[in-house]
Amino acid sequence: MKIVVCVKYVPDAQGERTFSSDHTTDRAGDGLLSELDEYPVEEALKLAEADDGEVVVLTMGPQDAGDAVRKSLQMGAHAGVHVLDDALHGSDAPATSLVLATAIEKIGESGAVDLVLTGMASTDGSMSVVPAMLAERLGLPQVTFASELSVGEGTVTIRRDGDASTETIEASLPALVSVTDQINEPRYPSFKGIMAAKKKPVETWSVADLGVDASQVGLEAAWTKVTEFTERPPREAGQVVTDEGDGGAQLAGFLTGRKFV
Amino acid sequence: MAEVLVLVDHVDGAVRKTTHELLTIARRLGEPSAVFIGDGYDAAKAALATYGAAKVYRVSDPEVSAFLVAPTAEVLAQLVEQTSPAAVLLASSADGKEIAARLAIKTSSGLITDAVDVQPGDAGPTTTQSVFAGSYTVQASVTTGTPIITVKPNSATPEAAESTPAESDLEVTVSDAAKGARVTDRKPREKSGRPELTEAAIVVSGGRGTNGNFEAVEAFADSLGAAVGASRAAVDAGWYPHANQVGQTGKTVSPQLYVAAGISGAIQHRAGMQTSKAIVAVNKDSEAPIFELVDFGVVGDLFAVLPAATEAIEKHKA
Ligand SMILES: Cc1cc2nc3c(=O)[nH]c(=O)nc-3n(C[C@H](O)[C@H](O)[C@H](O)COP(=O)(O)OP(=O)(O)OC[C@H]3O[C@@H](n4cnc5c(N)ncnc54)[C@H](O)[C@@H]3O)c2cc1C
Ligand SMILES: Nc1ncnc2c1ncn2[C@@H]1O[C@H](COP(=O)(O)O)[C@@H](O)[C@H]1O
Fold first, then answer.
1. Does domain B3-179 have CATH number 3.40.50.620?
2. Global pTM?
3. What is the ipTM of this complex?
4. A2-216 belongs to which homologous superfamily?
5. Which of A59, A71, A118, A210, when mutated, tests ligand 2's pocket best, judged by the most ligand atoms within 8 Å of its CB?
C-alpha cells in the first residue's frame, strides 16, 4: 500500500499571527508541522506498518516548510516531497490543490498511490477545503473527518461523528481521506527515528518540474481578493467579581439586566 | 435581476434556520433560487416561500443524496452553467464547505468560506470573515468565475418576504466518479432536547473544571434555554460528546451569549467562541486567560456559583 500524506507547515499558533503588506499570511517567525497534520501521518504509519506499505509525505511551502517534512520522516515516514518555488507565494486553496494534485500524480508515476491522507484543517487558515478540492482534481472519492479508519479489499471504511448521527462511510480505493484529532495519538519521534530521518530521500520540486504554469499559482492567480483587513479591537475589559457568597446572584443580575433571561 | 442560488440545508424537509438566513442574504444580491435536494419537499415549501425564494429547483433522485457531497456539487455545477447566477450561497457546515470546494474547482470559481456578512458591491458580493481565532476581520471578494460563498450560522437576521416560488424539477445524471463514497450505516445521536449548538442564541460550556460532573452546567443552561458545549479537555476525558466540542477542532459558535464554566480559555478554544456577542466566565483562577474576553466574570467555584445563579434565574422567571 502506498500512502501520500499532505502536511502543512504553519506559523506557531501561540505566536503573533499577522498579515504582510500584500495581505498574505505573514509566515515569518517560528513555524512547525501543523499539529492537525500529525494525525494523518500517524494513521498512515499504522497502516503501512500493518502491510509493509510506503508513506510519502508531501508539502508545499517556503524553505522552512522542509521542517514539516523532516518531522514526518522522524516520526517514520519513508520519503518526502517538498514543492518549493517563489512563484507559489500567496497561493489560495484552488492553486494549492492544483499543485498538490499534480505532485500526487507525479508521486504515482513510480508506483500507484492507494490512499491520500490529509489533516482536518490547517491550523492557520483552517478553511478545510483543500481536501475536497484535491479529491475533485484527482477524481477520487472523498471521505472527510474520519475519527476511525480501516482498510479492506480495495475499500476504506471510516467512522464520522456528524452533528445528528454517527456515520459509517465506505469508499473504493484509491481514495482521499481527511482525519480528525480524534483518530489516534500521534507518536513522538524517537532518537532512532531522528537519526534515520537524515538518510531518507527528500525531493524538492519546482512548479516547472510539475509542469504547472507559474501563472496559475501565487497571489496574482488567486480567484479571490482580500480588499481590507482590520485588527479586531480588543474586547473592552468587562466586570470581574470575586464570589463571596453572592457571585451566583450577581451573575443572574447581569444576565437579567442584559435581557438574557 | 440575476438569480442567486441557495442550497437548502434540511433534514427530511425540516429546513434549518441557516437557510432562512441565506435566503435573506440572497435577496440583497439578487433573486433567490432555492436548490432543494432529497425528500420532504412538501414540509420545506412553506419556509422557502416565507423567506422569499423566487424559484425552487428540486432534485429528488435518490442517487444524489446517497453518495455524500460529490453528486450535490455536480447538481450545482449544472445549475451554475444554466443560470449564470450572481452568487451561490451555502451553509458553512462541513458538508457545505466541501460541496462549495468541489463546485469551485468544477466551475473555476473563487470560493469564500465562513463569511459572517455578505453585502452587494460594485464588483459582486463583498464578504466579511473573521480570521486568526477572531483577532482580525477581513473583507474579500471573488475575482474569478461565479462567487461561491459559505456563510456561518447567525450571520443575518432572517427577514420574512412572502413569495410564490416557481418550482421546477431538475433531471440530473450522477457521474460514476461521484459515486465512490457512500454512507453504509447511520446511528442517530440521542436528542438532548436542547437547541442545536451552532444555532443557539445562548451557549453554556463546561471544561476540565467540571471534573466530569456536567449537572450544574446543564441545569444552568436549561434555565437560560441554552445549548451545552464543552472544551476539548472535557471531551477527551469522555465527559461530553465530541459533537458538543467548541473550538478549533470542534464547532465554531457565535451566539448572543457564551458562558464558559471551568474553562481556562486556550487559544484553540477561543477560536470557536471569540466572536460571541457577550461572554461570561466562571473560573476559580482569577488569572485564567478567559477573563481577558469577558463582559462579566465570576472568580469562584462553578459548583457554588452556577447553582446559585440558576436558582436566582428560576426565581426571576417565576
Ligand atoms: C491542535 C489542537 C486543537 C485543539 N482544539 C481544541 C478545541 O477545539 N476546543 C478546545 O476547547 N480545546 C482545544 N484544544 C486544547 C486546548 O489547547 C486546551 O488544552 C483546552 O481547551 C483546555 O480545556 P479546559 O479549559 O477545559 O481545561 P484547562 O485548561 O485545564 O482549564 C480548566 C479550568 O477550570 C478551572 N477550574 C477548575 N476547577 C474549577 C471549579 N471547581 N470551578 C471553576 N473553575 C474551575 C481552572 O482554574 C482552569 O482555568 C486543542 C489543542 C490543540 C493542540
Ligand atoms: N501547503 C500545503 N501543503 C501540504 N498540505 C496542505 C497544504 N495546505 C493544506 N494542506 C492539507 O490540507 C489539509 C486541510 O487544509 P486547509 O484546507 O488549508 O484547512 C491540511 O491538513 C493538509 O493536510
1. yes
2. 0.91
3. 0.90
4. HUPs (3.40.50.620)
5. A118
